[in-house]
Amino acid sequence: MTDTSIRQRTSEEERAEEEESSESTTTCPECGGRLESDSEHGETVCQDCGLVVEEDAVDRGPEWRAFDSAEKDQKSRVGAPTTNMMHDKGLSTNIGWQDKDAYGNTLSSRQREKMQRLRTWNERFRTRDSKERNLKQALGEIDRMASALGLPENVRETASVIYRRALSEDLLPGRSIEGVATSALYAAARQAGTPRSLDEITDVSRVEKDEIARTYRYVVRELSLEIQPADPESYVPRFASDLDLSDESERRARELLRNAKEAGIHSGKSPVGLAAASVYAASLLTNEKVTQSEVSDVANISEVTIRNRYHELLEAESGAPSL
DNA sequence: ATGGTTTTTACTGCGTC
DNA sequence: GACGCGGTAAAAACCAT
């Protein structure tokens, strides 16, 4: 399409173009009708039934037109194509290792020294850049997951601090950015007293549960973070509000938990289960009954566990109120 | 890897609406 | 008959060793 002059389009050309565009499309998966690509809206639409087959198509071509090659050079603002095989898509500067100039002539010793210095610095900048990019992606992920989980600002802050530490201590090699970012968030949420269960974290992460757990343990150990087992009470407010329970119920739930702690019921049991059971028990005590299955839903805990725990809670309450 | 503990899954029976 | 609840047994998951 590098015509050297502007011409009136002949009808023949137009027909040729039309054929070309219909060649790239196929038939509608719904009704078998002809597909038409609507470049203005970036959609591919079926002519017969109106089914939108593809949306958000991106026109990767230039938005300008050139009528001769000189103009093309002038208007073009792009360089070499990018590749995804390199962390920076191949956009960074490369300096050849051979001490030759562009014509293949050997460089003077002075020039050689200069090139050596340039190589050193270029390498430094490049790796620094890659770390920056790495960090940027990780922080973006942390932010995304944190908002999906409704975690406040300070947790994200903590998470990014943990991530930065992991990065500077060279914990990344061999582990995915995603995994470490997720672990950092998990750790941060627990440290901040607004824990999310591993299952909840897994739901919003792109990484498998096992990997998160493994990476988390590793990060905690290497950075010697001190994280206490989650306090069941910290789950209560969230469950209570998810179930539209009154403050009174929430208070009762906390009371039950404190009692249980005194009685030593809670060791070894999952904090989430305890919290769920206390919320359920409290709802009974305050006549705001919610069903076991509702609680099990918001807490992601089986009903059986709720039953077992809440029996224990009530026992501790009546059996040994003080001690 | 192993064994002990906890949680989950699946099923059953009972009472109520 | 569907629902909420309680219990049980077996499977699965988890944890320390």
UniProtKB/TrEMBL annotation:
Keywords: Metal-binding, Repeat, Transcription, Transcription regulation, Zinc, Zinc-finger. Zn(2+) binds at C28, C31, C46, C49. This is Transcription initiation factor IIB. GO terms for biological process: DNA-templated transcription initiation. PANTHER family: TRANSCRIPTION INITIATION FACTOR IIB, TRANSCRIPTION INITIATION FACTOR IIB-RELATED. HAMAP family: TF2B_arch. Belongs to the TFIIB family. The gene is tfb. Residues 24-54 form the TFIIB-type domain. Sequence repeats lie at residues 140-223, 234-315. It holds the Pfam family Zn_Ribbon_TF. Stabilizes TBP binding to an archaeal box-A promoter. Also responsible for recruiting RNA polymerase II to the pre-initiation complex (DNA-TBP-TFIIB). Residues 1-42, 62-93 are annotated as: Disordered. SMART domains: CYCLIN. It comes from Halomarina rubra. NCBIfam families: PRK00423.1. Residues 81-93 have a biased composition (Polar residues). It comes from the Archaea.
